[in-house]
Amino acid sequence: MTDVVERRLGDLTVRIDRLLCVGFGDCIEAAPQLWEFDDDGIVAFRDPAPDPGRQRIITSCDICPVDALTVLDADGNQLAP
User: Fold this and answer.
1) CA-to-CA distance for 77 and 49, rounded, in angstroms?
2) pLDDT per residue over 2-42, tens digit each?
3) How far is the C-alpha of 40 from the C-alpha of 4, rounded, in Å?
4) How far is CA 27 from the centre of its chain?
5) What whole-number distance in Å separates Cα of residue 1 and Cα of residue 40?
6) Model-level pTM?
Protein backbone atom coordinates (compact mmCIF):
# COMPACT_ATOMS: atom_id res chain seq x y z
CA MET A 1 0.00 0.00 0.00
CA THR A 2 1.21 3.51 -0.74
CA ASP A 3 2.01 6.00 2.00
CA VAL A 4 -0.68 8.45 0.84
CA VAL A 5 -4.17 7.26 -0.05
CA GLU A 6 -6.51 9.68 -1.82
CA ARG A 7 -10.22 9.62 -2.57
CA ARG A 8 -12.69 12.04 -4.15
CA LEU A 9 -15.83 12.66 -2.11
CA GLY A 10 -18.15 15.01 -3.95
CA ASP A 11 -16.12 18.11 -4.76
CA LEU A 12 -13.53 17.34 -2.08
CA THR A 13 -10.28 15.40 -2.30
CA VAL A 14 -9.37 13.64 0.94
CA ARG A 15 -5.88 12.29 1.63
CA ILE A 16 -4.66 9.93 4.32
CA ASP A 17 -0.94 10.09 5.10
CA ARG A 18 -0.35 6.59 6.43
CA LEU A 19 3.10 7.52 7.77
CA LEU A 20 1.63 10.23 10.01
CA CYS A 21 -1.40 8.33 11.30
CA VAL A 22 -0.84 6.78 14.73
CA GLY A 23 -4.37 5.49 15.25
CA PHE A 24 -5.91 7.90 17.75
CA GLY A 25 -9.30 7.33 16.10
CA ASP A 26 -10.71 10.84 16.55
CA CYS A 27 -11.65 10.88 12.86
CA ILE A 28 -13.56 7.62 13.25
CA GLU A 29 -15.52 9.03 16.19
CA ALA A 30 -16.37 12.14 14.13
CA ALA A 31 -17.42 10.26 10.96
CA PRO A 32 -17.73 6.50 11.56
CA GLN A 33 -19.50 6.00 8.24
CA LEU A 34 -16.40 7.25 6.40
CA TRP A 35 -13.44 5.84 8.36
CA GLU A 36 -12.29 2.56 9.86
CA PHE A 37 -9.00 1.08 11.07
CA ASP A 38 -7.13 -1.27 8.77
CA ASP A 39 -5.23 -4.36 9.96
CA ASP A 40 -2.25 -2.17 10.89
CA GLY A 41 -4.32 0.13 13.12
CA ILE A 42 -4.12 2.96 10.58
CA VAL A 43 -7.19 4.87 9.47
CA ALA A 44 -8.64 3.86 6.11
CA PHE A 45 -11.64 4.76 3.99
CA ARG A 46 -14.62 2.48 4.47
CA ASP A 47 -15.40 0.72 1.24
CA PRO A 48 -17.88 1.61 0.04
CA ALA A 49 -18.00 4.84 1.99
CA PRO A 50 -21.16 6.90 1.80
CA ASP A 51 -20.64 10.64 1.57
CA PRO A 52 -21.26 11.86 5.14
CA GLY A 53 -21.53 15.46 3.98
CA ARG A 54 -18.99 18.16 3.32
CA GLN A 55 -18.81 19.63 6.83
CA ARG A 56 -18.49 16.25 8.54
CA ILE A 57 -15.66 15.29 6.18
CA ILE A 58 -13.80 18.52 6.92
CA THR A 59 -14.39 18.26 10.67
CA SER A 60 -13.30 14.62 10.85
CA CYS A 61 -10.05 15.48 9.07
CA ASP A 62 -9.42 18.69 10.97
CA ILE A 63 -9.75 16.90 14.32
CA CYS A 64 -6.76 14.63 13.66
CA PRO A 65 -4.13 15.50 16.29
CA VAL A 66 -1.21 14.57 14.00
CA ASP A 67 -2.60 16.13 10.78
CA ALA A 68 -2.59 12.81 8.92
CA LEU A 69 -5.76 13.76 7.03
CA THR A 70 -5.96 16.52 4.44
CA VAL A 71 -8.99 17.95 2.62
CA LEU A 72 -8.71 19.93 -0.61
CA ASP A 73 -11.52 21.67 -2.47
CA ALA A 74 -12.06 21.43 -6.23
CA ASP A 75 -9.56 24.27 -6.82
CA GLY A 76 -6.85 22.58 -4.75
CA ASN A 77 -7.23 24.88 -1.74
CA GLN A 78 -6.52 23.12 1.54
CA LEU A 79 -9.56 23.17 3.84
CA ALA A 80 -8.19 20.97 6.63
CA PRO A 81 -6.07 20.82 8.63
Assistant:
1) 23
2) 899 999 999 999 999 999 999 999 999 999 999 999 999 99
3) 15
4) 7
5) 11
6) 0.93
CA–CA separation, 63 and 37 (whole Å):
16
Domain boundaries, the chain: 4-80
Q: Is 10 helix (H, G, I), strand (E, B) or coil?
A: coil
Task: Report the alpha-carbon distance of residue 53 to residue 50 in Å, rounded.
Answer: 9
Distance CA 33, CA 47 (A): 10
Compute how many other C-beta atoms are within 10 angstroms of the C-beta atom of residue 27. 24
CATH number of 4-80: 3.30.70.20
| H helix runs in the chain, sequence order | 26-30, 54-62
Cβ atoms of 57 and 12 within 8 Å: the answer is: yes
